[in-house]
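Appendix B, record 7
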Amino acid sequence: MDKAKKFRQLLNADRHFFLMEAHDGLSAKIVEETGFPAIWASGLSITASLGVRDNNEISYTQLLDVLEYMNDACDLPILVDGDTGYGNFNNACRLVQKLEQIGIAAVCIEDKKFPKTNSFLETKLDALADPLEFAGKIRAMKATQKNPDFVVIARLESLIVGAGVEDAVNRAKMYLSAGADAILVHSKRPNSKDIDDFLAAFDRNVPIFLVPTKYYTVPVSHLTRDKRVRGIIWANHNVRACVTVMQEISKKIYNDCSIANVEGEIAPVTEIFRLQKNEEYLEMEKKYLPEYSNLSAVILAAGGPGPLDFEKPKSLLKINGKSILEHQLDALRSVRLSNITVVRGYKRDEIQAKDVKLIDNPKWKDTNAAYSLSLAVPDVKEPYLVLYGDVFFKRYLLRSILDYASEHPSSDMILVCVKEDYIKGGYYLRLNKRPDVFGDDDELTVIDVRREREADKDGDVVYFSGLMMVNNHLAVQQLLEEEDCENLHISDFMGHAVDKGMKLSVIMSSKEAIVDINLLNDLMKAGELL
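Structure tokens (predicted):
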């Protein structure tokens, strides 16, 4: 069922319903999840969120941009505050055409002159449009619409400017004769006297919408005694709530010079991801992105906690509700890679994962990554990824390294490296040339590996990130078998590979896309990468 039909059914039902204000995609999604059956796309709220006045200071195309995001974010029908129709009958017709094209259900236009002033600020009696001209605008809009269920609502401003109930009644009848599907009668009194008087004087049996922003103390039960009252609009409360909370939080952060005291008062980042339908994207990623067949992965997670003395393996430290290991497994499975081995050591029994092979390194205290790798690879019969268990990265790096491996079969190993010495790995890699542009040079290779740091005079020194691809798995396995891996540092392993003529290619990454978790600050930074 299209959204216009949903709205038409609400309009034709025998009871009232509530519309909640939204002003962007996120607020539209929240309104939907709250349970409201329809959305009021408030002109005041949308302009406020854009930082301009509600005086026709945005064009209808700018309004359409916002509405398209709102409509895409939810399944609710949207009633748009269309101001005066953004001009004469011709502009109003164009507005209807574009609203229908993006799937909007209904529009409400007010009988004031263009450009208009917000109703709560308006005081001029001559602000009202000529009723014959406005009726012509309604006729043109109804003649333009293609979807018979699309709804056009005429908004009466007579009570707002003090023109009186009789003027409002006369205008309402004229607009209904022109084809309006419903009437919205507006008032800024703090009580419902204007509304009550209008309902008593108006004798047509048509749907009526009310906006009790100013007369909020009047019970809804009083307003809906008249069965013609079909829609009650809560017109601007979400944007006003945003303003209050943002002012309070901004002031607190400014005064404290810290975010530590507000973290518990605001939505976690994971809630933003949920509202953005991130899980839906991850499922689509599995379905539509290329599958990398004949690949395995080894996660080296045997090491102790290091400076992060949390008494648990670093791979189990949580970032936005998920452990590093879970994030890594999700990334690997997003490319449909299922043959995964995890090497455990420190508190090994705490590291559990479904559908992975677990290998233990009993000598984890006295060995390093090279030994853990040597334990895992004898059973691996195909190219494989190697991930340090404490490395957190943006997923595009995973796809970059896999694509590079398929396009450069002559590379024995592909290393993701960073220019900044932020990992403190105790060694550096010297390249065949200076890396000029991150990720764009596919000719970078390692020519030397040193444990002792030297001055980087030529800018050709980089540092291993903890993510690599072993393309020539047979040659690497043979190298590991030849080495005394229990006493082999990973830098020695890479150096020996270079000495034997193996090609170690390099993909450059910014440190903003990959983090080695060693300090509490690293955990916080990893959370920012999500």
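Remarks on this record: The first helix runs from residue 3 to 12. The chain has three domains: 3-235, 237-266, 273-529.
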